[in-house]
Design goal:
The complex is a heterodimer. By secondary structure, chain A is mainly α. Chain A is 80% helix and 0% strand. In chain A, helix 4 (71-82) packs across helix 5 (97-133), helix 4 packs parallel to helix 8 and helix 9 runs antiparallel to helix 10 (198-230). Chain B is an alpha/beta fold. Chain B folds into two domains: 33-112 and 226-278, Periplasmic binding protein-like II (D-Maltodextrin-Binding Protein, domain 2, 3-Layer(aba) Sandwich), CATH 3.40.190; 113-224, D-Maltodextrin-Binding Protein, domain 2 (3-Layer(aba) Sandwich), CATH 3.40.190. Chain B is built from twelve helices and twelve strands. Chain B has helices at residues 8-30, 41-45, 48-60, 71-79, 91-99, 131-141, 153-164, 169-172, 184-194, 202-207, 243-254, 256-264, and strands at residues 33-40, 62-69, 85-88, 103-119, 145-147, 177-179, 197-201, 214-218, 225-233, 266-267, 270-271, 274-275. In chain B, strands 1, 2, 3, 4, 5, 6, 7, 8, 9 and 12 form a ten-stranded mixed beta sheet that branches. Chain B has a two-stranded antiparallel ribbon with strand order 10-11. Classes of the chains: A mainly alpha, B alpha/beta. Chain A: This is ABC transporter permease.
Chain lengths: 231, 287
C-alpha cells in the first residue's frame, strides 16, 4: 500500500502530454454537457416551480428520481439509439465526443431541473404573491425568480458538473474509451486499473480530483466577485 | 427586487456554450479519414495497438480508433454496423460471423497462446504442460478459479478446455468458481487478490503489473493456441462501413511490414504476438 503511494507520487511528476489531453477532453465534454443541462434544466425547473397543473407533482417526483438515473443505463439506451442500426444511427455520433456530451447532458439535465425547481420554489414562497400582484405572467415570474436565485444556482451547476465529470458508465459505453479520441479521465483510470497499473491509475485519480477542485474554486471566485459587483 | 438583465450567469452560459461546444465537435470533424476497429481487451490492454498503429497511421493518414470489448461484444458491435473492422480471437464465432454474411472474408493475423496462471504455491497441484489434467485437479481440489464470464475469446477457450477435460462445469461449479464477467485485466486483479487460478492470454499477462503471488503454471499445451483473425464488416450489410480504409488496414496488417511490426512488440524481451498471415496457423502453433 505505502509502496503504491510512493510510486503514485513519482508517477505524478512524470505525467505527460497525453494526460493533459485526456484531462482537457474530460473538461470540455463535461462543461459542454453541463451547459446543455443548464439551458434545458433551469427553464424546466423554474417553470415547474411557478406553475400549477395536473400531473405536476408526479412530474416533480419523476424529476427528483431521475437525479439518481444510473449512468450505465443512460449509456446503454443512448448506445442503442445512436448505433448504426438504431433510430439516430445516421448521425454517426457513436464513439465520438459528441455522444459523450449527449450522455452526460442526459444525466445533468434532470439534476439541474430538480435542484432549480427546489431553489426557485423556495424563492417563490417569499416573493410569489408580490409578483402575481404585479400581474406578471408565469414565464416572467420564473425569469425574475431565476435571476434572483442566480447565485444559489451556481451550486446547482457545480453539482451537475460533479455528476458529469465523475461518471464512467455512460461515457464508456457510448464513447468506447478510444485512445486519443474518446478516452476521458474516468475511463483512463478504469483502463489502468484493469491493466493492474494501480499507481498510474491513482496518479490519474489525483489529477481528476485536482481538476474538480479547481473548477469549484474558480466558480466560487466568480460567484464571490459577482455577488460584490451585482448582488 | 431586480429586473432580469444580462447578468453574469447568462453571459457565462453563452461563453461556455460558445467556446466549449464547437471545440468538442471540431475534433471529430477535423480527422479526414478514420476507421473504427472493434477489438478485444487482450490486444488493447497488452499495449499491442499502441505499438503498431503509429506506423500505419503515418503511412496512410488513416486514424484507427480502437474500441476494446470482449470478442462476443466486439462481433455484436460489428454486426450492428458500429465498427468497420473486427479483430478478434474466437475462431468458431468468427466463422459464424462470415457464414452469416456480416463479413466476406476472414484473415489470419497473428497468434499467441493462453496460459494457466495460479498461485506460486499451487495448492491444487496443477503445474505442468497438460491443461485438461490441470483443470481436473483444480476442480477436484475445489481451488479458487476466476472465470472471465463475459463471452470473450478467452472465456470461450476456457469453456472449451473444461469440456475437453470432461468436466461438466454447471454440475460441479460452486463457491470456488468465480464468474466475474469482466475483461482480462479486472479478472487478473481478482485472481491476484484471491490467490485463484485463471486462464489468461499471454499478452495481457505479460503486460499485467499487479501480479501478487501469481505465476504461470501451465503453458505450451497446443490446445492453448490462441489465433487472432481480422474481418472487414460487409459493406453490403452496412453501407456506412468505410470499406476502402478498413481494407487498407487489413492489407497492412497482413503485409510483411505489418507482420514485422507485430513481431517486434516485446515486453521485457518477450514477444507477445506471433505473425501468422498466409501460413496455416495450427502448424505454426507455439509448442
Amino acid at each position: 500500500m505505502t509502496e503504491t503511494i510512493h510510486e503514485t507520487f513519482a508517477r505524478l511528476m512524470t505525467l505527460d502530454r497525453d494526460v493533459l489531453a485526456i484531462a482537457w477532453l474530460s473538461l470540455r465534454v463535461s462543461l459542454t454537457a453541463v451547459a446543455i443541462g443548464l439551458l434545458l434544466g433551469i427553464p424546466l425547473g423554474a417553470f415547474l416551480a411557478v406553475t400549477r397543473f395536473r400531473g405536476r407533482s408526479a412530474l416533480v417526483g419523476l424529476l427528483n428520481a431521475f437525479m439518481g438515473l444510473p449512468p450505465v443505463i443512460v449509456g446503454l439506451v443512448l448506445y442503442l439509439v445512436l448505433s448504426r442500426s438504431g433510430p439516430l444511427g445516421s448521425l454517426g455520433l457513436l464513439f465520438t465526443p459528441g455522444a459523450m456530451v449527449a450522455a452526460q447532458a442526459m444525466l445533468a439535465t434532470p439534476l439541474v431541473a430538480a435542484l432549480t425547481r427546489q431553489v426557485v420554489a423556495d424563492a417563490e414562497d417569499h416573493l410569489g404573491e408580490q409578483l402575481r400582484s404585479l400581474g406578471l405572467s408565469a414565464p416572467r415570474r420564473a425569469g425574475v425568480l431565476v435571476y434572483d436565485t442566480r447565485f444559489s444556482l451556481v451550486t446547482t451547476a457545480l453539482a451537475a458538473f460533479g455528476r458529469a465529470i465523475s461518471e464512467i458508465g455512460a461515457v464508456l459505453v457510448v464513447g468506447g474509451n478510444i485512445d486519443g479520441h474518446t478516452r476521458t479521465m474516468t475511463t483512463a483510470i478504469s483502463l489502468e486499473t484493469q491493466k493492474g497499473d494501480l499507481s498510474l491509475a491513482l496518479a490519474l485519480g489525483i489529477v481528476l480530483i485536482a481538476l474538480v477542485v479547481t473548477v469549484n474554486a474558480v466558480a466560487a471566485l466568480l460567484r464571490g466577485h459577482a455577488v460584490r459587483a451585482y448582488g | 427586487m431586480v429586473v432580469p438583465r444580462r447578468g453574469f450567469l447568462t453571459l457565462g452560459l453563452l461563453a461556455l456554450f460558445g467556446t466549449v461546444a464547437p471545440a468538442s465537435m471540431d475534433r471529430a470533424r477535423a480527422e479526414p479519414a478514420s476507421i473504427v476497429v472493434a477489438s478485444t481487451t487482450s490486444t488493447e490492454q497488452s499495449g499491442l495497438f499502441k505499438h503498431i498503429l503509429p506506423a500505419f497511421e503515418a503511412k496512410t493518414g488513416i486514424a484507427v480508433k480502437v474500441v476494446a470489448l470482449g470478442t462476443g461484444q466486439a462481433l455484436d458491435a460489428a454486426r450492428r454496423g458500429d465498427a468497420d473492422v473486427a479483430l478478434v480471437h474466437d475462431r468458431p464465432a468468427e466463422d459464424a460471423f462470415v457464414a452469416q454474411g456480416f463479413a466476406k472474408a476472414r484473415f489470419d493475423v497473428m497468434y499467441n497462446d493462453f496460459v494457466l496462471v495460479g498461485p506460486k504455491t499451487d495448492p491444487a497441484g496443477a503445474r505442468g504442460t497438460d491443461i485438461t489434467a490441470a483443470l481436473k485437479r483444480i476442480a477436484a481440489a475445489k481451488a479458487p478459479f476466476v472465470s472471465r464470464g463475459d463471452r470473450s475469446g478467452t472465456h470461450s477457450a476456457e469453456l472449451r478446455s473444461w469440456k475437453e477435460a470432461g468436466i461438466d462445469l454447471p454440475a460441479v461449479k460452486g463457491e470456488w468458481y468465480r464468474d466475474v464477467g469482466q475483461g482480462m485485466g479486472p479478472a487478473l486483479n481478482t485472481a491476484s487478490a484471491l490467490d485463484a487460478y485463471i486462464l489468461a492470454d499471454r499478452g495481457t499477462w505479460l503486460a499485467f503489473k499487479n501480479r501478487g503471488d501469481l505465476a504461470i503454471l501451465v503453458e505450451g499445451d497446443k490446445r492453448l493456441f490462441n489465433p487472432y483473425g481480422v474481418m472487414l464488416v460487409n459493406p453490403d450489410k452496412h453501407p456506412t462501413v468505410k470499406a476502402k480504409e478498413g481494407q487498407a488496414f487489413i492489407d497492412w496488417l497482413v503485409s510483411p511490414e505489418g507482420q514485422a511490426s507485430i513481431a517486434a512488440y516485446r515486453i521485457g524481451g518477450e514477444q507477445l504476438f506471433f505473425p501468422s498471415a498466409n501460413v496455416s496457423p495450427v502448424t505454426k502453433a507455439k509448442p
